[in-house]
Amino acid sequence: VWTGTQWITAATREEGLCNPGAILLQTLRGVYAGGVLQFGFGLQDAQIDIEGLKAFMLHCAARGYTYDRWITGQVSLGAFCDEVALAGMGQFTWTDGSRPTVSFVGSGQPISGVVNMANMLKGSFSVAYNLSNAADGIEYQYLDRNRNWETQTLRVAAPGVVTMLNPARISGDGVTTEAHAAVMARYHLAQSLYQYKTIDFGADIEHL
Fold it and tell me: Coil, helix or strand for 31?
């Protein structure tokens, strides 16, 4: 686990044992027994975006995001990494097409791309708002470590909604505290309310 100044080997939750960024780094490096890869990708550090994962670890540590889950069934490494990254409000991806990393939601992040009239084809821009079927709230289910690992359902209604009639039901794999679940539920609700639209435009290949 990267603490901001040094690497440590975490042995407790307080030290970062369940930090999503550290779990992803372990998965990318792989777990070996007797020189044989047992789990993970088995990549060398030169093949991993270490700096990006260090930033993700600090992001998760600062906000108390953790990943706790006992996996008993089969799951692909890609699906596992997606799940772990989401617990830290991130997305598992590959930077410059070759090195795995995580892009994550945080305040003050720079704009990653700008599209305007200078690089659009005339008359090709359109926005479709599909709000009629948008959820009016979120029902977020998770295993609560403080309540004997029982499944809990946290309900978050959209602004102005008194009784939810069309809530979206989401399972929070790896999320085990009420505070973390509340953040994730509000995050999914915000996506439903403010990002539920389709934007289309045409561009010349040099502008794309």
Answer: strand
Is the separation of the CB atoms in 91 and 102 below 8 Å? yes
Quote the CA–CA distance of 68 and 89 in Å, as a whole number.
Answer: 15
CA neighbor of 23 nearest in space, from 95, 77, 63, 76:
77
Which pair of structure tokens corresponds to residue 145?
């470590």
Q: Which residues of 98-118 are buried (b: 16+ CB within 10 A; e: fewer)?
A: ebbbbebeeeeeeeeeeeeee
What is the model's pTM? 0.74
**Alpha helix positions (H), the chain:** 20-29, 50-63, 77-87, 178-194
With CA atoms as reference, report the closest residue to 155 among 185, 199, 129: 185
> How is residue 44 written in tokens?
């060398």
Distance, in Å, from the CA atom of 30 to the CA atom of 24, rounded to the nearest integer, reads 10
* Secondary structure letter of residue 28 according to DSSP: H
> Over the stretch 148-195, which tens digit does the pLDDT of each residue have?
999 999 999 999 998 988 899 999 999 999 999 999 999 999 887 776
Nearest to 57 by CA among 98, 28, 33, 30: 28
